[in-house]
Specification:
single chain; 18 helices; 63% helix
Length: 301
């Protein structure tokens, strides 16, 4: 009886792709670059790589070796212009974050930012990317903080993306004039602001009020809360801010339930822990209880 040869290969097995080929990732296309950048050796290397892993390796090598000003300019440009789902962009930021001395790349990011500030075409999107865990980009924003505030204040409109960018700037430092606070005060509390924008706008308003007035704003709020009923205490807070803004007038009305809710949430978010939980002298309740009471009243309404 014939026996089966177990070592015999099945037909077609030699045509199966290897594991290496199956795991191979296709290289990415680079954004359109200027003629100067297209003539770089780095550009030629990246556009002729056989797979994505080779591209990432070449990029890392160029960043770590600091291969020259033109390469640095190209890498910064690609960081901002690569699509959000690109695998090259996080590879760029991760490698930049490993540099012990990143001064040459901070300078390259600054140059790019100054160009964007002049044109103003994609400035909001550019600053958003600077806060995506890229240390040299973040440093460049810090170096140009005052210029960025000036541009964004001049063109301020209640827009979600812009308000989020301004909140990011506040984490670095406040603006140095009252113009931004005045412009926020002119629109906050009004119906022209879309509902999904109101929470962040209240946060931004309180950030600026705290920095510009120099007041321990939450302590002042607690004093106001203990002396007034639930329907007017937030209006008193806002009037206190307007008093600080000498000569500035606004018809802002905090009586709207949703605006009151957003402002209370902002107060709790930005307050210090000791302000929220420390019992005040001659007061029966903890400071946070007054805010909780306000939230309950808004919810019941």
């Amino acid at each position: 009886m014939a026996t089966m040869n177990l070592r015999t290969k099945a037909k077609g097995s030699s045509a199966l792709p290897s594991k290496k080929i199956l795991n191979q990732r296709l290289p990415e296309s680079l954004p359109d670059s200027s003629a100067d950048l297209q003539h770089l050796d780095l550009f030629q290397k990246l556009t002729t790589c056989s797979d994505l892993d080779e591209q990432i390796a070449e990029l890392r090598k160029a960043i770590l070796s600091k291969s020259g000003a033109k390469d640095e300019e190209a890498i910064v440009s690609w960081y901002f212009r690569l699509p959000s789902n690109s695998s090259l962009k996080p590879a760029i930021s991760a490698t930049l974050n490993k540099l012990e001395d990143d001064s040459v790349f901070v300078a390259a990011f600054q140059t790019y930012l100054l160009q964007e500030i002049q044109t103003k075409q994609n400035l909001v999107q550019t600053i958003q990317r600077c806060f995506e865990n890229c240390r040299p980009a973040h440093k460049a924003v810090k170096e140009n903080l005052l210029k960025l505030y000036e541009v964004f204040t001049e063109d301020f409109e209640p827009d979600n993306a812009l308000v989020r960018v301004l909140l990011s700037l506040e984490t670095i430092g406040p603006s140095q004039n009252r113009s931004l606070l005045e412009k926020i005060s002119a629109v906050i509390g009004t119906e022209k602001v879309l509902p999904d924008l109101r929470s962040n706008l209240c946060l931004l308003w309180l950030f600026e009020f705290r920095h510009q007035s120099g007041l321990e704003y939450f302590t002042e709020v607690c004093k106001l809360r203990s002396k007034s009923n639930q329907t007017i205490w937030l209006s008193m807070l806002f009037l206190q801010a307007l008093k600080f803004l000498s000569g500035f007038k606004s018809q802002t009305d905090w009586s709207g339930l949703l605006w009151r809710l957003h402002l209370v949430n902002a107060l709790v978010t930005l307050a210090k822990a000791e302000e929220l939980f420390e019992a005040k002298e001659k007061e029966e309740n903890l400071a946070i209880e007054g805010l909780v009471d306000e939230l309950v009243i808004v919810a019941d309404s």
